[in-house]
From TrEMBL:
<keyword id="KW-0813">Transport</keyword>
<protein>
    <recommendedName>
        <fullName>Xylose transport system permease protein XylH</fullName>
    </recommendedName>
</protein>
<keyword id="KW-0812">Transmembrane</keyword>
<dbReference type="Pfam" id="PF02653">
    <property type="entry name" value="BPD_transp_2"/>
</dbReference>
<feature type="transmembrane region" description="Helical">
    <location>
        <begin position="214"/>
        <end position="232"/>
    </location>
</feature>
<feature type="transmembrane region" description="Helical">
    <location>
        <begin position="122"/>
        <end position="146"/>
    </location>
</feature>
<keyword id="KW-0472">Membrane</keyword>
<feature type="transmembrane region" description="Helical">
    <location>
        <begin position="173"/>
        <end position="193"/>
    </location>
</feature>
<dbReference type="GO" id="GO:0005886">
    <property type="term" value="C:plasma membrane"/>
</dbReference>
<dbReference type="GO" id="GO:0022857">
    <property type="term" value="F:transmembrane transporter activity"/>
</dbReference>
<feature type="transmembrane region" description="Helical">
    <location>
        <begin position="284"/>
        <end position="303"/>
    </location>
</feature>
<feature type="transmembrane region" description="Helical">
    <location>
        <begin position="21"/>
        <end position="43"/>
    </location>
</feature>
<keyword id="KW-1133">Transmembrane helix</keyword>
<feature type="transmembrane region" description="Helical">
    <location>
        <begin position="98"/>
        <end position="115"/>
    </location>
</feature>
<keyword id="KW-0762">Sugar transport</keyword>
<feature type="transmembrane region" description="Helical">
    <location>
        <begin position="323"/>
        <end position="351"/>
    </location>
</feature>
<dbReference type="InterPro" id="IPR001851">
    <property type="entry name" value="ABC_transp_permease"/>
</dbReference>
Amino acid sequence: MTSLMQSLKAGPLANLRQSGIYIALAVIIVLFAVLTDGSLLTSQNVTNLVVQNSYVLILAIGMVMIIIAGHIDLSVGSVVALTGAVAGVVAVRMELPWILAILAAILVGALVGAWQGFWVAFVGIPAFIVTLAGMLAFRGLAMIVLGNTQISPFPGPFRSIASGYLNGLLGGYGYDAFTLLLGGLCVAAFAWMQWSARRGRIAYEQTVEPMALFILKLVLVALLIMAFAWKLATYKGLPIVLIILAFLIVIYTVVTSRTPFGRSVYAIGGNLPAARLSGIKVKWVNFWLFVNMGVLSAIAGIVFTARLNLANPKAGQNFELDAIAACFIGGAAVSGGVGRVVGAIIGGLIMGIMNNGMSLMGIGIDYQQAIKGLVLLGAVAFDVWNKRRAGAVEA
């Protein structure tokens, strides 16, 4: 009875944190589509949005797991520069096969993550301090590796990671039917996952959003996915970087929601003493979280370097801020224990659409930074308000 009364008190707002982000994305898309006279939604611009924001979205996947566990990583932008520099040295200066450049960059990213994970997990230094030091150290290492110069050009296959497309696999219609087919499969997969998750919450007597709101969310997401697929299909087809990003989203969604490691991450961020008492190897979970963040930073560095066709010691500046902002806008809690991979991706898309839309409107970078700061503050304020409301409901 008590549980029922709490659900009634919470009402439709009980899952506003989860459902509201989808509505916010749709509203922002419509808003900037109107303000830019439709320029935002041209096929070319939609494709550019994917390519331009892919590396930040990759970083956001790892960052949200770090934040869920109650940590932060300020070094990812510098790791992007360092791993891009390593790829440049291997592929261009040493003239080795481009696949070895990718493997070398990922290995360096993993070693960087292991280094930071050691200090955080086993020595006990706060992640803020460790990664702040890493932000400085790895930027310096990037300059040393490159000799404080730039490396270019990269081999064609390497560049295609960020600039290549799959097109014509099911062509002959004036658009790429294969891209639309994949869009439909994504809609079906999303609906099945959401329905399964809803049934699971109901089975454990957890609060769920009203069925009308649940259906509305599915319809909105389906429309967004298919409209997005149509725009890609009528331009150059499916970007290769989008395939990489989709693969990472699926893998890490499963890891965070369906594996013991993922449940351990939430347990550590939600209640650290209880996690220790329950037998979770907290130190090792934290260690592997930072190794994972290093690997994802390397992948982002590869994508960014491939897009620019340039290894630059100044690459990745402020990427950590964009990734962190994406996580908080996407529903991650400042205190840890709350957050989702899909939410971080949507938060990153919101930031990317805002950047792109304001640029199309001719708004200067100074005003853009101020507006993004206010949006981030609003997202964190909503998190605080949501917790207070939840506490009032429980009382």
